[in-house]
Amino acid sequence: EAIQLSDGTFNFVWSGADPDGDAMLYTLYVDSIDGLQTPPDRQTDISSTSLSVELISNTVYYWRVLSRDTNGNTSYSQVKSFRVTE
Q1: What is the pLDDT, as a whole number, of residue 17?
Q2: Nearest residue to 51 (alpha-carbon basis) of 38, 59, 41
Q3: Strand pairing class (2-4; 80-85)
């Protein structure tokens, strides 16, 4: 998939739910290596299901989301990729 940036940023949006209804926190992994690299602090333990991230044109990115409920149960999404075009 190819995307174009708006003001140098892209708004990532995902969904998540806990079967028990527990509160959820998310960590957004975004990198140009494999989607497994440690994210910056501003992308960890966020309560919303969207986040704008600065990206670089002409780059392939990989991303995934870690979901964690208040009991410490975790789940990772699949790693997905996309290319940023000019």
Answers
A1: 85
A2: 41
A3: parallel
Structure tokens given for 70: 């208040």
Alpha carbons 64 and 85: distance in angstroms, whole number = 20
Torsion of CA 23, 10, 53, 83, to 10 degrees: 110
Cβ 39 vs Cβ 84: under 8 Å: no
Model pLDDT, residue 19: 86
Q: Cα(51)–Cα(31) distance, rounded to whole angstroms?
A: 14
pLDDT tens figures, 26-71? 999 999 999 999 999 999 999 999 999 999 999 999 999 999 999 9
Residue 37's nearest CA partner among 26, 49, 29 is 29
